[in-house]
Each structure stands twice: as C-alpha cells, then as structure tokens.
Amino acid sequence: MRFDILGPMEVCDGRTRLTPRAAKIRTLLAALLVSANTAVGTDTLITEIWGTNPPRTALHALRVYASEIRQMIAAMSDDPDRPALATWASGYCLELRSDMLDMLEFDRLCDEGQRAATNQCYELATENYRRALGLWRGPALLDVSCGVVLHSAARRLEERRIAAVKSRIDIDLRLRRHGQVVPELTELAARHPFNESLHVRLMVALHGSGRTGDALTVYRGLRDSLVAELGVEPNAQLQRVHLAMLTADQQVLDRQDLWAL
C-alpha cells in the first residue's frame, strides 16, 4: 500500500487505485499525510477544509470524512502493518511506515545521501539523491484543494526538493560532471530567477565546461535583475566566484565551501 503526494495525490494498494475523489476528503487525507505519525487538531483540520467560516456541521462532517478514510484503509490488503487512522482527544493521527509515503521515503533517501557524502562515498550519495528526486511527479499536492496548512507544506516540500537538487549537483560538480548538469541548472535558474545559489552553481558548471564567457553572462544578467527588481547586489559568494573567473583563480572555484549555499 502506498500514498503519494509529491505530485498528484495517489493512493494505491498494489495495482488497485484507491485515491479519494471527493475534494474535501482529499484535503483531509493530504493534511494528515503531511503530518504523518503526528496528531493534527480538529480545529486545524476544519479550518483547512472549510476556511475561517466553517458550517455548524463541520465537526460532524469531519468525522464522516475520517470514517471514509478508515473504510478506504480497510479495503487495502490484509497486511497487519497497514496504516491506521487513530483518533486522539483533540484530533486525528495517520500512522504509517516510512515506505508507505513518498514524502517520508524522500526524506530517508536524502538523509542517506547526506551521510554517504559526509563519508566521501560520492557515487552512493548521488545515487540516493537521484532516487529521492525520482519520487517527484510534479509539484507537491498538485491536485489537492489547499488551505494554509497545505500551502505551507507544499512550499516546504519544494524547498526540500531544491535543497536535494543542489546537494546532488554539488556532488556532480565535485566529480567533474560539469557539462552534465548545465542543462538542468539552466532550467532551474530560469524557473527561479532570483535564486543566487542556483545561479552560482550554473556559473561554476559553465566555467568547468569551458564556457567561462557564458558564466560571466549569467552573472551580469542576475546582477542586473537583482539591482533592478530588488535593489540589491549579488551576495558575497556570487561576487567571489565572479572575481575568481575574471582572475582565473581556480583554487576558489574548486572549493565548494567558499561559494556553495
């Protein structure tokens, strides 16, 4: 059995799809999944589903939706370790193993990637990060009606995804795979035009691919955008990399600790 929220919501038991169709039940399930194995208060769930002006019947409806989720879980396999929706004094808790939810599996693989990188097992580290990022099928909670809680969760998940991408790219740069990461970094920098940490990595990758002129063009374009839109200069790390390219200081460019954010 499996719950996926790193993209459109999917609930599957083997090849059988059990994804709820009703919008409010999907919202309730998503709110429980982003806080898996942690109790979520009924007031929080009601606000997430109905907003700040819920109907008088909201608590009763919430209990009905929770019952439908329990029925969905009961329809799954006879695995004794299948998920359980527990009722707490002031809310609900969806209890499940980490391998049943893509969000938890993503976190586990990223942790393993970080440990491998710390131990200088770079090929293993990059493989773990690739497996983690391969779990994503689009923006998190793509087809779920989101309130404050889920909007915040989706933002946090996207930040964690970008952090994993940067960690994996840093390993690729360390392994001298500059040319391989240029297309990916170019796309990411275009999607996040003010993200300086992505731009500095793009500059390093371009320089390592023998395209220093293009790297300097990236710097000028970012600086123009930052000054015009935000009224700020590029951060110290970007300026350090820019100067290192102008002065051919390869030692600075080889030291990720001087520019990786």
Characterization of this structure:
This protein has 261 residues and is mainly alpha-helical. Among the domains are: 2-98, Winged helix-like DNA-binding domain superfamily/Winged helix DNA-binding domain (Arc Repressor Mutant, subunit A), CATH 1.10.10; 178-261, Tetratricopeptide repeat domain (Serine Threonine Protein Phosphatase 5, Tetratricopeptide repeat). Helices cover 59% and strands 8% of the residues. It is built from eleven helices and six strands. It has helices spanning 23-33, 42-50, 58-74, 102-118, 122-133, 148-174, 178-191, 196-208, 212-230, 236-246, 250-254, and strands spanning 2-4, 10-13, 16-17, 40-41, 84-88, 91-95. The strands form two sheets. It has a three-stranded antiparallel beta sheet with strand order 1-2-3, with no helix packed on it. It has a three-stranded antiparallel beta sheet with strand order 4-6-5. Helix 1 crosses helix 3 and helix 4 runs parallel beside helix 6. It is elongated, with a radius of gyration of 22 Å. It starts with a strand and ends in a 7-residue tail after the last helix.
